[in-house]
Write a structure and sequence with these properties.
31% of the residues lie in helices and 37% in strands. By secondary structure, the protein is of the alpha+beta class. It has a three-stranded antiparallel beta sheet with strand order 2-1-3, with helices on one face.
Length: 70
């Protein structure tokens, strides 16, 4: 924690579905929530018919990188 406020996490997540790779970067104050939001956003970005949120959340990201900043 910094004096000026909470550290922020910047996470980039990539998922693959039907040979399509979709990546999203999300910034947040809680690492787990930031990762989860990046996964949900990447799934929405896939825009594939029949690709449900459950399908998405059951997939392991092919890329997951997080860094912190103040």
């Amino acid at each position: 924690q910094s004096i000026l406020g909470a550290d922020k996490f910047s996470c980039e997540v990539c998922i693959e579905y039907n040979d399509q790779r979709v990546c999203q970067k999300v910034v947040g104050e809680d690492k787990d929530r930031t990762i989860n939001q990046a996964i949900i956003t990447a799934c929405a970005g896939a825009g594939v018919d029949g690709f449900t949120e459950d399908d998405c959340q059951s997939k392991k990201p092919v890329k997951l990188e997080c860094s912190t900043s103040q």
